[in-house]
Structure formats: structure tokens, C-alpha cells
Amino acid sequence: MKKTILAGATLLALAIPSLSLAQNPPPQWSVITTTVIKPEFRTEYEAIQKEITAAYKKSGVPFRMVAQTSFGDVMEYVSIMPLAKFADFDGPSSLAKALGGEPAAQKMLKRMAPYIVSVHRTADLAMPDVSIQTPGDSGEWAQVIAYQLIPGKSAEFTAFLKSDYLPAMKKAGIANVWMSRPIFGGDSNIRIMVIPMHKMAEVDLGPATTRALGAEGAQKLNAKQSTMVASVNRSISHLRMDLSYLPAAPKGTQ
After folding, report:
1. Pairing assessment for the beta strands 65-71 and 76-83 based on DSSP bridges
2. For position 136, what pLDDT does the model report?
3. Which among 124, 169, 177, 204 is most buried, taking Cβ atoms within 10 Å?
4. CA nearest 34: which of 67, 1, 57?
């Protein structure tokens, strides 16, 4: 199964901080670029990521987040940027705009090319109706869970999240659960869940569903989920603050 993270998520799903807290928010799109690099070029690749992030910030892009997979493919980085409208792709690339022209963008890409094994890009859509969103600092770590749905089970899985899974997460005191799905460039039967964490020690607490429902209740929940989900891929990602800049906090949350 191809995972996309903060696909989603990493991390960190997805331009997750862009999820609107308005009552009737517009669709929230993110461009998720998953890059696998050669191990010997980590320092050089990260240096270029800092340059790219600085250029985007200077050009006025609302945010750019770069997450590094810690458990999963450890050579994987995921960058997350907001997508206001697809018409933006009709002109110069975002990188060209940020760097001041296509020649500068091509020069940057050529510098980076020797460091890269593969690149995969998707356009992901946030799913705020099946998410838990709490304003404030959500932390720099995240569990990223990719669900491969059984074909034809999409609506049933959404209903399951609303009626069973999210209430259990809320009962366990989980402040944020962010859901998204790839629309372009990915499998339409994949759903990405991002559960932010402030510390890795939160993993030691065990599954939130078990804490909320007990072992027997969690087993029943998992059994119900298995009727809709073909497979599950779990990873942990780290939001690299040194390679990123975050969106402005919503008013009233600072």
C-alpha cells in the first residue's frame, strides 16, 4: 500500500492545520509530496529543503510543513502545502514563483535530483466531518494510519468513524484526529488518519480505544472495522520544525 503523511500525512494529513474550524468550511485541499532519498545525502537534501521553505515563506505561501518518517521508511520525507485552487497549476510552478522564475526552479531541482530515489505527489482532501479538531499546539509527532478500504465500503467506514471510532477517541481524551483522502495521484480507497502527539511517550500509553472501551470493547470495535478495511499501515512521523513554517494560529487560540 502506498502511504502518503502531518500523508497524510505525513503529518502531518495532511495540511492538517489548514482544516477550517468554520461551521461550513470550503473544501480543504493539500498537495502532499512524498520523497525517498539516498541515505548518504540526508544533509544535502535537508539543506535544500530549508532553501525551498524559505523561498515559499518569502513568496507568501501560507505554510509549508516537512515531516520525516521515524517508524516506516526512514529515508522518507513528506512535504505538505495548501492548495487554494487547481487553476494555480495553469501558470508557473509554485517553486518557480517562490524562487523568482523557472530557470531558478530548474536549477534547484537539478541540484536536488542526485539525492532522490523517488517522488510521489497527491492532492488530498481533508475530511473535517470525521475529524476531531482542537485549536492550539498539536505537537511535533504523529501516528499516521493508512486504511486500505474494501471496495464499496467507503460510506460504511465513514459512518463507523462517526458512530463508533471518534466517540471512543474523545472518551480517551484524544484532542485531535485528522482524516483525509487522496483524490488525485492516489488510491481512492485509502483513508489517512493522523493522530498528533507532543511526545513519543504517548505511544507507551497503549491504544486509545482500549483505554476508552477496555480490551473487550476494543476487540469488538476492531472486529467491526475489519468488515470494511482490507489492511492497515501504521507509521510515526516527526514534523521537522527546522525545515518547515506553520500557518498562523486562528484568532483566539494564541
Report:
1. antiparallel
2. 84
3. 124
4. 67
Q: What is the per-residue pLDDT for 23?
A: 46
The length of the chain in residues reads 254
What Cα–Cα distance (Å) separates residue 198 from each residue in 50, 77, 105, 138? Answer: 23, 19, 35, 7
Q: What is the pLDDT of residues 215-238, one digit of tens each?
A: 999 999 999 999 999 999 999 999
For the chain, the structural domain boundaries read 16-243
Per DSSP, the three-state class of 56 is: helix
Cell of 234: 501504521
Q: Which phi and psi angles does 17 have, rounded to 5°? A: -60, -10
The rounded Cα 49 to chain-centroid distance in angstroms is: 17
| Crossing angle (nearest 10°) for helices 102-112 and 42-59 | 160
Q: In sequence order, what are the beta bridge partners of 145?
A: 193, 234
pTM for the whole structure: 0.87
What is the three-class DSSP state of 13? coil
DSSP string for residues in 109-161: HHHHGGGEEEEEEEEEEE-GGG-B---S---SEEEEEEEEEPTT-HHHHHHHI
Least confident of 88-102, 115-129, 155-169, 193-207: 88-102
Pick the CATH number of 16-243 from 3.40.50.720, 3.40.50.10890, 3.30.559.10, 3.30.70.100: 3.30.70.100
Q: Indicate the residue type of 63.
A: F
C-alpha atoms less than 13 angstroms from C-alpha of 129 in its C-beta half-sphere: 12
Rounded CA gap, 119 and 78, in Å? 10
